[in-house]
Amino acid sequence: MARGALTVVGTGIRIGVQLTPESRAAVDAADELLYVNAEPLGDHWLASLHPRARSLASLYRPGVSREQVYEAIVEAILEPVRAGARICAAFYGHPGVFVRPSHEAVARARAEGHDARMLPAVSAEDCLFADLGVDPALDGCASYDATGFLARPRPVDTTAALVLWQVAAVLEPHAVAAGSHGGNLDVLAARLLELYSPQHEVVLYEASPFPAAPALVERLPLAALPEARPTPQATLYLPPAGTGAAA
After folding, report:
1. Most buried among 72, 96, 203, 234, using CB within 10 Å?
2. Averaged over 162-180, what is the pLDDT?
């Protein structure tokens, strides 16, 4: 097996303005750019960065298990690396935050003797702190995948902020078709109502991918969450409440 190289980068959230100089240098130095992106306009921009740029978005197919999708992405990245190529794999946001294929690709590449590294980038959570005016150092902040939050119950300190990722696909083991997101919010809301009052204000948030456009911020009482229709990239933010911890 030839020795290849893999650099995993993040594009940030805002199209064209949050790719760091370090990550751009990695794109330029690569033999091929492979990417997974959340916005169609971002696809055009990413395709323009490298003469051999290729989207892996077609590997996301409705009805296919997430595990299968992630495995397909990892193998698509590693195939040219194993052939000796220098590959740059770009993911939306921060490549190490809720991007399982990026970690797996780096780990496998290293285990197989290839050079592999991951570079940092702006994540949706970074944008959330800025857009909502939240300082996680004041009261603390816990951050979980929404499905994992339900599947692995743990004590929740309601005096700290709570961030739940991927709420639009909560309890969905398969890739979700457009327009089918948020079908299990009632289950998530029922668990949260054990911890917070029905009137507790929560925020469905999505960072804007466009520099001139505002973020999507929907504030609603927790009791109204089951009727909400979150965007596919939505994150749920619950500000601190009360003075004690709930089990």
Report:
1. 234
2. 73
